[in-house]
Design a protein that fits this description.
By secondary structure, this protein is α/β, with parallel strands linked by helices. The chain has helices at 13-25, 36-46, 63-71, 87-95, 108-123, 156-167, 175-182, 191-205; strands at residues 5-9, 29-33, 51-55, 78-82, 100-103, 130-133, 136-139, 144-147, 150-152, 173-174, 212-215, 219-222. α6 (156-167) packs across α8 (191-205).
């Protein structure tokens, strides 16, 4: 995971420097862009960016537009930064495939912790770690999910959520436990975040979406029997 390449996109130079300094201290290779247009140029030129930290409000091309364009061709993890903390903005971010959503002002140490957690999962999986349940195959190392031998496209968080369900098949999982394990202990979200992702995951799994059962008043259980 050392020297993983991270692109920090923010029109405030002071904010970019703050984030960059903390990430460089962790051993990451940090690139910077001051708006969405520059970010897309760097993203297409570099090819091997491991994660984006993306501000929402920027000139020329805002964070939502950048996210939409990137998601047309890449599942690279995206952390969204915003001064706005309204619920509809957060849900819009998740609908666009954002993996984490952090409102300003924030603790740089918390941001780094989330970066570490995401890259540990995307870059540090053990090879050959493959799970199968009811015709669903999850390859953690390759970050691939297949249904009856056919690959399906999942966002980073949908993949992590499905992996957690399959790893804990047959076990009733509270929403709090899912938040703590999939979104990390320091994520200040609520149940609607999980419910939104479960709804999208069920849809992508097709008939096998029925394996994810709702336990009313508590959470969910994955049962492929």
């Amino acid at each position: 995971m050392d020297r993983a390449k991270i692109l920090v996109v923010d029109d405030e130079s002071r904010m970019r420097k703050l984030v960059r300094d903390f990430l460089v201290r962790e051993g990451y290779n940090v690139l910077e862009a001051e708006d969405g247009v520059e970010a897309m140029d760097i993203f297409y030129e570099e090819k091997d960016i491991s994660l984006l930290i993306l501000d929402v409000m920027m000139p020329r091309m805002d964070g939502w537009q950048v996210c939409r364009e990137i998601r047309e061709s890449s599942k690279v993890p995206i952390i969204m930064l915003t001064a706005r903390s309204e619920e509809r903005d957060e849900l819009q971010g998740f609908d666009l495939g954002v993996d984490e959503y952090i409102s300003k002002p924030f603790s740089p140490k918390i941001l780094v912790a989330r970066v570490n957690a995401i890259l540990r999962r995307t870059l540090g999986s053990d090879a050959g770690d493959v799970m199968e349940a009811g015709g669903i195959t999850v390859d953690k190392a390759a970050h691939i999910v297949e249904i009856d031998g056919k690959p399906i496209e999942l966002s980073y968080k949908e993949f992590e959520l499905l992996t957690y369900f399959v790893e804990n098949r047959g076990i009733a999982l509270s929403r709090e436990k899912i938040l703590n394990n999939v979104w990390n202990y320091d994520y200040f979200g609520d149940a609607r975040t999980i419910d939104t992702h479960v709804k999208k995951l069920r849809s992508k799994l097709g008939d096998k979406g029925e394996y994810i059962r709702t336990i009313w008043g508590m959470g969910y259980k994955f049962d492929a029997e």
